[in-house]
Write a structure and sequence with these properties.
With 65 residues, the protein is mostly helical. It contains three helices and no strands. It starts with a helix and ends in a 12-residue tail after the last helix. The protein has one domain. Keywords: Membrane, Transmembrane, Transmembrane helix. This is DUF378 domain-containing protein. Pfam families: DUF378.
Length: 65
């Protein structure tokens, strides 16, 4: 589950980078527009993955010496 969440967060980050730099929404382009059901599903999954990934901020990390 952690790996899937990370993949979705990376996809979301790359998509937002493309939107910010080039005004190009890759998810919408691939899946039929911003309002298509499939695009909305992808956006929703990316959002849920982001919420799930918040837990990584609070995990204890191994201390390297």
């Amino acid at each position: 589950m952690d790996t899937l969440a990370l993949i979705l967060v990376i996809i979301g980050a790359l998509n937002w980078g493309l939107i910010g730099l080039f005004q190009f929404d890759l998810v919408a382009t691939i899946f039929g527009g911003v309002n298509s059901a499939l695009s909305r599903l992808i956006y929703g999954l990316v959002g849920l993955a982001g919420l799930y990934s918040i837990k990584f901020l609070f995990l204890d990390r191994e201390k390297t010496q």
